[in-house]
Amino acid sequence: MRVVVAASVSALVIAAPTSAFAVDYLSADQAAKLMFPEADAFEARNVTLDAAQLQQLDAQGVRGRSASWPVRVAKRAGATLGFVVTDAVIGKVELIDYAVGIALDGNIRQVEILSYRESHGFEIRLPAWRKQFVGKGSASTLRTGDDIANISGATLSCNHVTDGVRRIVAVVALARRGGTLA
Amino acid sequence: MNAPLHASTGWTRRAQPLLGSLVEIGVRDDGANACEAVDAAFAAVREVQACLSRFEADSDISRFHALRRGESLPMRTSTSCVLAAARMLQLDTDGAFDISLGSAPDGWRCEGGRLLKLDDSVQLDLGGIGKGHAVDCAVAALIANGCTTGWVNAGGDLRGFGDAEWPIRLRDEVTGGVRPFASLYDGAFATSHYDRHSRSRLAHAVGGSIVRAHVSVAAPLCLWADALTKVIAISGDTAHPLLARFGARAWSH
Is the pTM of this model over 0.95? Predict the structure, then answer.
């Protein structure tokens, strides 16, 4: 083991941290292939919940939040293998894109983080800061964190992701019962 | 999955929500099947979580909590490894390092591969040491699967191995943002931040007052880096004699 502390570390301690951090792990398509390697096709669908279905979600203690969800249906020789749903959550200092793979029996097959960005707590709340990520795929996103940097610090909570995964499982189950997702 | 993802960058890098945080794993694409190795490393982290998590009903720790005084259960490998380390630190810090968080420091004992309950009120929390062990297990899985260079970062408890210098940045929990702190070669690094606004709390064994500290520890193994941040935070001593035993260094921020 060898550790070299940054030369100007004492100055940096006093200086306000300013750098944002961002990393892309997988595109949604790559995640879908990783979760269902046996699939020969993925059908893009958009699951839209109606008001009654959103109320059902509420009744299950899952906040619906959005009425529309992008779903990739994994297929092999025409038969459905499962579903991959992508979503984004915003935490105190982070914005996380993630994908959930759900098998036909409704169980979670895999959860993968697609991208992760963080900045100042107050900065991420600004609409302009958020807007720069809207509509961008992994190929076009800003890549400030491309150098392999490890962050050590207060433990980052993944509660938002965990809640989001639970919500997606409920949404897919509801859509399948309602016949909008075969 | 045969082709490594992100092959163009020379690294395979993935993250999953585990251990109540984000676990990031990266390996250099140099011949080994990086994707399978990373899958194996995530599986190793899940196995540690399945042994130690208070939030999983089937974990050794949850099943231990359900026991009555005088009963015992067989421990899985990760459980006995982490509990042995925790007991050693408890003895060497005169009880300051206490995974029972004051509920009953001597209410548990490991004996012949079994975990004995000695006090009905004992509640174990391995949050201060388990994550580091999970990182070590993930690194072992990567190496066993042929990876020569890589890193595992479990929400800030991290370890790098192989022929690379790992730049370490520190996160500021209060204001957000990160700043460069150090570079690490073949070793582990962990940071703990305890304050009024922190998610984690730490109390002094005597008096129970809340610890306020922001410390980092570098050590060859992540289990010790993780656990020693608590020892340094409680003692306030970045030259604590235990550091030398584990080849560790500490900083207060």
Answer: no
